[in-house]
Structures are given as C-alpha cells and as structure tokens.
Amino acid sequence: MASVPHDHSHDHAHDHDHHPLKWTRFFTTTNHKDIGTMYMWFSFAMFLSGGVMALGIRAELFQPGLQVVRPELFNQLTTLHGIVMIFGAIMPAFVGFANWMLPLQLGAPDMAFARMNNWSFWLLPPAAILLIGSFFVPGGAAAGGWTLYPPLSVQAGMGMDMMIFAVHIMGASSIMGSINIITTILNLRAPGMTMMKLPMFAWTWLITAFLLIATMPVLAGAVTMLLTDRHFGTTFFNAAGGGDPVMFQHIFWFFGHPEVYIIALPAFGVVSQIIPTFSRKPLFGYASMVYATASIAILSFIVWAHHMYTTGLPAAGQLYFMYATMLIAVPTAAKIFNWLATMWRGSITLETPMLFCLGFLFLFTMGGFTGLVLSLTPVDIQLHDTYYVVAHFHYVMVAGALFSAFAAVYYWGPKWTGWMYEEKLGKIHFWWSLIAFNITFFPQHFLGLAGMPRRIPDYNMQFENWNAVSSVGAFLFGFAQIFFIVIVIRMIKGKSGIRAAAKPWDGAEGLEWTVPSPAPYHTFETPPVVK
Amino acid sequence: MSIFENKIMLKKLIVFTAIMFAFGFALVPIYRKICEVTGVNDLLRPDQVKNTQVDKSRTIKVEFDANTNHLPWSFKPEVTAVNVHPGELTTVVYEVSNTTSRDMTGQAIPSYGPTQAAQHFKKLECFCFAKQDFQAGEKRLMPVVFLIDPDLPKDVNTITLSYTFFEMPGGKPAPNTAPAGKLEAKQTAALNAAPDARHN
To answer: What is the ipTM of this complex?
Structure first.
C-alpha cells in the first residue's frame, strides 16, 4: 500500500512541534494524543494483568482436581479477571482510540474539555491499584463474581470494599470521558461536517457515550447501596430488613446489559471504518448503520432481565424479555449485512487490520448466534451459569471487542507512530490469535452443553479432555499477545523501515489522513472545511 | 464553536448524569411497587388458598429446618418433619427464645427446597409475616399454619421448609454478652446455611 520509504531528509512536522519534555509531561498533559496514548498503554497493562488471571484459571482447569490455586483464590481470579478486562482493558482501549482519533476525524484541535480529559485518565491508575492490591489484603480480593451479587458481596471481606471504590472511580472516569466525547462530537466538528457526514467511529462513540452517562450512574448507585448495606446498616439487599437480593440483580443488569453494547458499539465503529478502506468502497448503508446503532442502544435498556431467567421471574416477564432480546438481533444483523454488502464486489486486500475485521465478523456472528440461543428462556434455564455462557460472551467480547481493538492498532498505528508495522508479523499475530482463540473457547460450548458449571475450580472427569484443550489454547492465545506487544514496539521503533505516509491506506477516507504521520502534536488549529 | 457552548453542554450532561444516579436509587421504590402490584415476592402477606380439596392419594413429607443469621437466639421446630396430604391444613410450632440479655427484634425469612415447591406451599399464618420483638431471655412458641397446594408437581415428595432468623437492623445496641467463641461458631453455622429468600 502507499507508503514512503525511509528517508532521512524527510521533513518531519514532528520535529518542529512544541513538546513539553519534562518527566511531569504525562501527569500534566492536556493533549488528546498524549492522553490517548496513555489510555492505550494503561489498557494493555490491564489486559496483561487480566490475562495472567485468566491463565491462572485455565491452569487450574487443565485437569480435574485442585492443583494450581486454592478454590478461594480461583474465585478471586474469576471475579477480578472479569472486572479488570471490562473496566481496565476493553473500555480504556476504546476511550484511548476515541481520544486519539475523534479530534483528528472531526477536524477539532483537541477534546472539548482538555483538563477533564487528563483527570479522567489519571483516575484509572488508582482504581487499578485498588483492584490488583485487593489480592494482598486479608481475605483477598472480591470473590463473588464480577457481577457483585449479594448476599456474597455483602458478606465478603475488605477486598470487596476496594472493588466497590474501584468501580466508583472507574465509573467517574468513564462519565467524564463520555461527557468530553459527547461535547467534542456535538460542538467541535469542522465547518461543513453535518451529523450525517460523521465518520461511523464518531457516531458509535457518540451513542456509546450516551449509554455510559445513562448507565454508569446507576451502577454507582447500586454499588453505593452495597457499601451502605455492608457498613451503614441499610438493608437494600438484605431480606431480613425488607430488602431483596434479586433487586440488586435488576439494578445491576439495568447497567450491565447496556454495558455489553458500550463495549461492542465502538468496536462496530472501528470495523465500519476499516472494512470500507480495504474494500475500496464507501460503507454500504451509512444511514441504516446509524439508525441500527441507535436502535441497539435503545433496545439495550429494555432487555436486562434476560440475565435473570433463573431468579423466578413470572412467565409473562420471561416471555417479554425473551422477545425483546431477540429483537436486538434485527439491528445487529442489519449491521452485519451492511458490512458484507460493503465488501461485495469491492477490491479487497487482506492487510492485518482487514484480517482482524474479518475475524471479528466471523466470530462475532457466532457469538451473536449463541446469544440468540441463550435468549430463549427454556434453553437459558438449562444453560445458565454453564461454560456455554462463558463461550458465548468470550466470542462477543474477545473476538468482538478485542479483535477490533487489534484492528484499530494496526489501522491507526502508522498514524500514531509514523511507521508502518511489519505486515508479515501482523498476519502471524492474526492467525495465531484466531486459531488459539478458537481452540480456547470453541470447546467451551461443548462443556457447557454437557453441563459444566462456570466459576468452579474443580470438575467432573467427563469434562477433562475439552478442558485440557481449552487450557492449551488459552496459553497459546496469551503468548500471541506478548508477540503483539513486540510488534507494536517494533512499529514504534520503525523496525519495518517503512515510514507511514499521511494516508498509508489508499482506500481510506476521512480527515485523519490529511495530517502527516506521525500526527503532529497539535493538529487542526484552524479547522478544515468539509465539503 | 465557543467555549461557552461547551460549558452549556457540560452542564446539561452533568444534570443528566445526576438524574441517572438518582434514578438508580429510585429503582428501589419502583421495584417494591411493582412487586406489590403484581404480588411477586411479598414475604409478609398470607397466601390465598383456592383449592382446599384434600388429595388423600398423595402423602408429602414436610421437613422443618431452623437457622439464625448473626443472631444468638435459640430457634427450633417442635417436630422436625410431618407427613401431610396435599390440601390438608396443618399447624406446626416453633420454639424461639432470645438467649441474650438484651431486647432484640428479629425477622424470619422462609426458603424452600426444592425451589419449585415454593409456589405451592401456602402459609396462612406465620411468625414470618411480621417482625418479632423479643425481650431479654424471652421464650415463645410460634405457630405456622400451612397447606400444600394439590397442584404440587408429581415428582415432589419431600419439601423442606427452612427459616432463617435475622436480626432487624436498628435494634437497640447493647453490650454483646455472648462469649466470643460461641458467637463466632454460630455465625459460621449461619453462614454455611446460605439463606435463599427469593421464593415465598
């Protein structure tokens, strides 16, 4: 693809930039690119921490019986793996992309509230310290599952308090980030960029940010109630005092289901940018993509109790939530078909970002189908809390969000670093991840259908073979991500020897490709005009 | 776009966030109201009985279990099990005594095993319908009047009715007179019998 060879006389806008060079730069920076970069490194660090926890889980499950970790620690690992991956890895990764790319895509000089942006990032490391540190306090980390269900979460030790505070802090960070993103998108667009000319990544983030400010405060409320139940004698969730533990599940999933789309929608946005680029065709059905995204967001508020079929919902409630859940398949399918139609008769080339998007399409669709299976009440009652559910949400979370995050790094990485990544290594990373991912999670469908419960460190002999396969796959997948960081570092150091052109992908569209690569420290100080 | 407009947007979004935070707490009364209107999950109301036809062809064994949670009371049923026919009105008595030297208030929460028995187990009178005030050292016999709905699924032959007594918060604080070791052992026992109070 179009890229300029390494040339020392190449005049680099970067060199003329005003950079604060002191070590305090990262604490005080208000630059959206610095903050975006910090978000991404933070996210990767948390991704590795959560990954180590996952490997602890898989090592224990390699064989029946207890070998590697104590059951108490196993429960802590499953709990913290979930919360660290969702709040620490995936969400900050996409906030990082938003910080880096939204001003560039919109033709804005920076985010709307640059100082708040700094603050919303720097809230995250304390939260991470609380989460990881909770392993070392008496009683260990929270162990009742990332969903924090009472009564366990009311009875647990101080690790739970640390998790509750961490959720508060990360929630505040997300809310500030969202306010920033919404204001940037609505107020800072370049002249001429109407809402229906917004890049899809901006559209999906706009909708995601609204989901975040609508649901994060509800989660904050729920964990505040947990906290007061634990320490201040309230009985929101204590049956003896007139409370109800099931009510927590309702409040939690009122946040929790939109949260699923908070993770998925920016991923959809990334894919909607990349597939047209490498198909060399504009996105098929742009308007329908916008409407589909908005309908997914709205529907996500009215389906929460499909996570609670086994709590004794009345039959009418189960029917309602079943049909409402199935309805979400309609706009989601519209998006899948639009992506396929975008590729239809396009001049497709398979660079790494495109490969990850195709992997996303394939695996996310499978995860969507198992989701449809689980939406059926009678089936879900059978499969509830089995490995089938684990397989389902890893197909949508890992293959959905994570693969599209990888695609974004390969796609926009040249813009960030000024260097192309090494295509061959990127392709190895893709195939390695794809195969290892499926070795890990595909057998979990079988385990779940055979009745293996999740969140338990030991299991019946009959599940042995597929668990061993799954554990081997998990370690392969883990090593693939070490390889990924090697690729990224080599890209930053310019090991490919190929400087990235301002527009390294010939099919790419958008304002972000009109600035040089690497993007100068300050861009679009005078707004561009969009025709 | 000016900074002024950004600030207006900021204010709107902060107000929206605050409203959603309040909404999270508003879900508590909304949930209670929905449960009350639909009759779901109302633990404090006697059940309505429609079918009192006694089904002599079946005999169900009902077992009684009594636990306390963080509550140093003595709580036990006078009989541990009875055999009843579906539709037959039965009375059992529990013996409760406050073994501490302070006045306390407790609330019993029922739970059933197997869970599908819950909706067929009709309690007409129960000490669990109200908070129970106990003076220091007071001992009382408290009845439960129940019948089992003849619609009980055919494969259920044994039902366990398990009560857990919880201390009502806001009870008068008083020095804890129970020996520490004994209290701790009881707490552990209560925790092991994880109360499942969803079903009534």
So the answer is: 0.88
